[in-house]
Amino acid sequence: QSAGGAIGPLKGLIGPLVGAAAAALTVGAAIKGVSSAMSRLDEVTKKAKSMEMSTNALMGLQHAAEQAGVSSDMMAKSMQKLQKNIGLALIDQAGPAHDALTQLGLDVNAIGAMSPEKQFLAIADALKNVANPAERAALAVDLFGKAGQDLTILTNQGSEAIQAQIDELKRLQGTLSETDTANIEAANDAWHKVGL
Questions:
Q1: Helices then strands (H, E): number in the chain?
Q2: Which DSSP letter does residue 157 get?
Q3: How many Cα atoms are found within 13 Å in the side-chain-facing hemisphere of 165?
Q4: Is the pLDDT confidence value at 10 over 60?
Q5: Over 24-67, what HEC string results?
Q6: pTM for this one?
């Protein structure tokens, strides 16, 4: 059979082949999207656990940060830095974070007894009340590390506005239970094992 004679049957296959290829690409994209979302949720869950806070709490703060133009990754890292600095302040009863909290009128031991998200909200209100922008930025850096100055965009809103953003996220997507987060971690591990 000539090449020309083969074109007719092939033409009939082009449509189905293109459709199958498009479907495969769509499925592939969907799988990639699900895998990416699972990885992201797993990462947030693990970071939250490292700070002994709930996934919902960290996601809420990250949502509020993103609304203020601060990345979710920066928010998570800043919270980890804050936890470390508060821990050092409690142990040493001295140091930059201890002095910053004292200067803000916050009791170190009382702050240490709060959940991480409550610590952030209390510190946000205290920082908001510092009139001098340079002093406010310096105190934020002592507490949150290098990203502290960028975080003042968020803390300047105060706890009420930040909590409103957290509540907004709950309304938009609901909350995750401990079972949900455990299932997400297990599912993400399974996705990686099969190379998805």
A1: 10, 0
A2: T
A3: 20
A4: no
A5: HHHHHHHHHHHHHHHHHHHHHHHHHHHCCCCHHHHHHHHHHHHH
A6: 0.72
